[in-house]
Amino acid sequence: MSHIAFLNIPGHGHITPTLPVVTELVARGHRVTYAVPAGFTDLVEHAGAQPVRYPTTLPTSDEEWPTDMAPAMRLFLAEAVALLPVLAERYDADRPDLVVYDIGAWPARILARRWGVPALQFSPTFVAYDGWEEDMKDLYDTPEMEAVFAEIQDWLTAEGEPTDARTFVGHPDRAVVSIPRSFQLNGDSVPEKYTFVGPCIGDRSFQGTWERPDDRPVLLVSLGSAYTNEPAFYRTCVEAFGGTHWRVVMNIGRHVRPEDLGEVPDNVEPHPWVPQLDVLSKATAFITHCGMGGTMEGLFHGVPMVGVPTIGEQHLNAMRLVELGVGRYLPMEQVGVESLRAAVTELVDDPAVARRLAAIREEIRHAGGTTAAADVVESMLA
């Protein structure tokens, strides 16, 4: 029995894609520990892992997260500085044979090097391709980002880590990527050390199910688990699709109350949370913030998406859906009753969209998902 340690950051979009892989590895006879804060212990235990609890320094409120890259990276650096000695102590008497880590779990590579064990990155999002630095020059080569990389370099040097800061943050030695290659930016230019396995989807029935009350086509509306305090957006969705032929399932989050939406027609269901994967399995269309997790779940189920992103990567995801011909990009400031209706109608009425979604679903099926990811993990143990 090998001991595999998963190190991650406390975010559903980062932890959720790994959980089916944890379950698969445990089923294959491995022992898996998973370092998480208290709020995620139930999830990793349900997947079959032993939680290794730690106190996080990252913001607990959605609204406290910065939207700009430099301050966000400083938060990850502060977390890494605080967490490195904690994880070193937690694992001192139970060192793993392999470390699997998230793109934001910076202590992982340092600990793996100290322990003399391999490290495998599990990326739930885009990875670097040949020419990445040149294409991202305007984003990274700013005084603010230069200062952040200098701070990261100081930390790495103090910890005896020989890798330079930019390589450390953006270029792993080996990685599994839980998106299909066709969705990756410049997918044909990604080095072979990255294995695209596509979405890793597991059984989430323990989170509940949603039963369709009638035969109307289902429209799911969700801005994810962060930045959901958008009552005007939800009211616009109610006005656009209330009283129509759609069955609208709307995740309004914990900040907005149903009474904030005004009069809600019978065909609209506002919920503080929904079992998204189950709803998507029955959905015809999806209005989404385009977080990578939800975007991959939409592609997995072949559901066309209208992207209404709020921060960084979400805009890239929405634009990528447009480039692939399976979605529409609608910035929040352009959201209106007519624009929402038109975007959804154009997608569901276009047979070419359905054909392209079917092709992506076939690619995802052949990529292997959870099984392929677990195979790569095991190959690192050889």
What does this structure look like?
The chain has helices at residues 12-15, 19-27, 41-47, 69-90, 107-115, 132-135, 137-140, 143-158, 165-170, 231-241, 276-280, 292-300, 312-323, 337-348, 351-367, 369-381, and strands spanning 3-7, 31-36, 50-53, 98-102, 119-123, 175-177, 194-196, 218-222, 247-251, 268-271, 283-288, 305-307, 327-329. The protein is of the alpha/beta class. It folds into two domains: 3-124 and 129-170, Rossmann fold (3-Layer(aba) Sandwich); 206-365, Rossmann fold, CATH 3.40.50. The strands form two sheets. A seven-stranded parallel β-sheet has the order 3-2-1-4-5-6-7. Helix 3 (41-47) links the parallel strand 2 (31-36) and strand 3. Helix 2 packs across helix 16. The chain is globular and about 60 Å long. It starts with a strand and ends with a helix. The model has no long low-confidence stretch (mean pLDDT 95).
